Amino acid sequence: MSHKILKADLKSSVSKRGLEMYPSLTLASQRIGDCFYRDREVPAHIPLFPAACEMAPRMVVPLTVPSESASKPQKDEVKMELENSALWKQFSSVGTEMIITKKGRRMFPGLRLKLSGLNPSLRYILLLDIVPVDNSRYRFQGGGWQAVGGAEARLPDRVFIHPDSPATGAHWQSRTISFHYAKLTNNTLDTQGHIILHSLHRYQPRVHVVEARDVLRWAGGQHTFIFPETQFITVTAYQNNKITELKINSNPFAKGFREDGMNSKKQRDARQKRKMAVLTETLDIVNCDPCDSTELLPQPTPTSTDLQTLALASLPALPDPSGGFRPEEASYQDTLVPEQSLDLNQAFMASQMPDITMQETPGNELGNNIIERSDAIAAPSYTSSFSAAQTNSSSFSSAIFPQPSSFSSLPVPNSSDISDSQLTILPINYPTLLSSSPATPSLQQTSFTFPTPPPSDSSSPQLLPSSSSNSYHMAPDTVTPHTPTSFCAPSSCESNLQDQISAHPLLHQPSQQQPEDGNDEPSVQASAAYIYPNVLPTNPDLAPVTAQPLACQHHSPAAAPSCSLPAHTASTPFAFPSVPPQMQSVSLQSLSPSPALHFPNLNHQAPAPAHAAAFPPSSLPHSSSSLAFQPSSCRAASSLFQQSVISAASLPPAVHPHNLSNSSASSSTCSFPPVEIGAIPPPYRPEVVLHHPALLPPLDSSLPSSPAPPALYPAFPSHPLRLHQNSHPSLSIPFRHLYRQHQHGHPHYQGSYLDMSKRAVF
DNA sequence: TCAGCTCACACTTTTGAATAGC
DNA sequence: AGCTATTCAAAAGTGTGAGCTG
Question: Could you give the CA distance from residue A94 to residue A459 in angstroms, rounded to a whole number?
Fold first, then answer.
């Protein structure tokens, strides 16, 4: 089976930033102040992010967002379930560790997902990215994981595109979606497209469902799903023996290491004994033959293989200390035992699999570019259960979940806490969690609209406001795609942030979140517009806070700025560079130009339209961006957003690691503050393409030269999208090697990659 | 000295080409 | 000739443990 894997380095703010932890909101100040969401309970425009303290590590932190009003029709109910949730929870209860190696290591357990709610006729792209949960480095001490310091500089974010992408909704919904091809590496110079992570850091995988049309057209609705139980700590060698046991017992490839396996400790010891015996015997023989000894001694020390060969050859009749060395038999036994275990797991999963129903948050019909908030429908139940679980025995808690009961009392660590915190990750008691939330395990859903990173210069096309009241305003001269979104160091911003957070109205509305019944989502009433974060921070953590380039800055909750959003209606297509078929990953980068996706397997699916007009009506009518947190499944909320793209940049404010530890470590909850989802990075910006003509594929004469853009996508001069007809990936440029110079100025610059590091720094 | 990393190893499953059978 | 099933070797995925590194 040859999976045509598409690897591309999309630069997405989403992947780059991941979910920002609340309350350490991280959008650039100039944008943060302009980020408002409307909420029924909070009619006034409430800035998503504190104006003063935007600096925060890009981490996964869900923000609780009041869900859309129940009265609103839910047009977009994308649901995702984690099929092997039970297995994940088993690991999570101990403290999931993921081996990362230089060559890349697969994740185990892998992400096995079920999707529903997609438009069968539309194409979607599934993306996997992994973002830091906090800003700490961990060490396994005293049987548990403890934060022992600050995280290392963030590495280039890469996104793994599911090999089937793009595929129709029918395709995705007809089978289990697995991301087992994705590999993790700690090689910062990795050229294989693996997801680069730091060892001994804590991460949260995220899955993004993006409408292919939208991605190809520099925008699009998206759904982001996060399963708290899939958090893990990266290691180069397992630290917790329990994890090792679980891996061995669960992973078929590790079958040999099982108790009765051929590579078990017992067998290995036996082999070792035999080797030593043979070696000793051989040496004795050699030593007994003085004549030969001088001749033969020069031979190299027998290798283990040689020794084993000798041993096997000389010990065929030797009784096996372990009860008989019969590979076939042992192997057979090994297979039976684990399989049964897995079956049990499956049964458990089935029983535990909640009927997750995440409410989607219909976006603004008019396409208003407003941060839309969807409520964590099931937040209460899930929250409480999660909290309860906290107290239990898991090796680490889900840091991303703030205290349920209280936004107002959301723990906001002092700066001092940050430096010396020795976070001990508490385990999550999933069973408790599940049992406690009978209604629905689904977490809250949060939907966000993400501005599409606009071109950096005036020449770049700009999105014409479809609605005057909700238009984006760009300040090309002041804000470039390179403009960092974060402007203050975490330490300096913490106190302010805390104050702001505590004062934030939303933080005092935990009770307002309705239980998930699909009707509890608070509707966004007040018109809210936030300045289009046209550029994601190149190095948000280092970016100065003072920079406020955007013309439309509104830090006042009452302010409803009208900002023009640059339109990226046209995609600048180019072929992906050829990549190994098995994995193709992209670095989503918000700031740097993003290449148009070229999906090799488009041709064996529904004909790919050359331009938006050719696409069927979007299943994400509002170009929604949604984020859903759920234990095992969730329904993503869709929000109306024209330029929604997976963007970590627009992701929720980063939660301070310590904050995280305090809130989550002490309690895992599902009451999240509003989560802002990042957006799929746009293709290359026009100016970039101009300087790199090679990026542009030959124009397809058969395609209309000037396709009429849909209303949501104002005319934008560009090359018509030319979908590659070759079923095999033939990426003409190192698409997957596009990196953004990360915050902290990551030194591991990819020399062979396109230099995306040159961007304005404020 | 030691925590963390790299690498070779043995074992396993997966993959896909080659072959056989219908 | 075409299709399907089977076989088999190579490739790739595992954890382990010794050795290396800073």
Answer: 54
> If residue A224 lies in a helix (H) or strand (E), which one and from where to where?
strand A222-226
Looking at per-residue pLDDT, the higher value among A644 and A117 belongs to: A117
How far apart CA A446 and CA A573 sit, in angstroms, is: 31
Give the Cα separation of A487 and A54 in Å (integer).
6
With CA of A236 and C1' of each nucleotide, the nearest comes out as B5
Residue A432 CB partners (closer than 8 Å, separation 6+): A385, A388, A389, A392
Footprint of strand B on the protein (CB under 7 A): A 1-3, 101-102, 139-140, 186-187, 199-200, 235-237, 239, 252-253, 255-256, 261-263, 267, 271, 303-305, 308, 327, 330-331, 334-335
A286-319: pLDDT as tens digits: 555 433 333 333 333 333 333 333 333 333 332 3
The bases of strand B with some atom under 7 A from any protein CB are: 3-7, 9-16
Helix ranges, A289-326 (H): 290-296, 304-314
pLDDT at position A723 over 50:
no
Nucleotide nearest to A186 (CA to C1'): B5
Render the burial of A606-619: b for 16+ CB within 10 Å, e for the rest.
Answer: bebbbbbeebeebb
pLDDT digits (tens, 9 = 90+) for A369-412: 322 223 322 222 222 233 333 333 344 444 333 332 222 222 33
The residue whose two tokens read 């000037």 is A706
Q: State the Cα–Cα distance between residues A602 and A598, nearest whole angstrom.
A: 8
Nucleotide nearest to A183 (CA to C1'): C13
Interatomic distance A122 CA / B12 C1' (Å): 40
Nucleic acid strand C: bases within 7 A of protein CB:
12-18
Mean pLDDT rounded to a whole number for chain A: 47
Whether A368 shows a pLDDT value over 60: the answer reads no
Query: What's the pTM value of the predicted model, to 2 decimals?
Result: 0.48
- Angle at alpha carbon of residue A715, lines to A711 and A718, rounded to 5°: 135
Pairing of strands A112-116, A177-178: antiparallel
Per-residue model confidence as pLDDT tens digits over A562-594: 333 233 332 322 223 333 333 344 444 332 323
Q: Report the first-to-last Cα separation within chain A, whole angstroms.
A: 49
Among candidate residues A756, A210, A733, the one with its CA nearest the CA of residue A535: A756
How many residues are present in chain A? 762
What are the φ and ψ backbone dihedral angles of A207, each rounded to 5 degrees?
Answer: -120, 130
Whether A563 and A472 have beta carbons less than 8 Å apart is answered as: yes
Residue A220 has pLDDT above 90, yes or no: no
What is the Cα A740 distance to its own chain's centre?
16
Q: Spell out the alpha helix ranges (H) of A152-224.
A: 169-173, 212-216
- The CA–C1' separation of A238 and B4, in angstroms, is 11
Mean pLDDT in residue range A703-732: 28
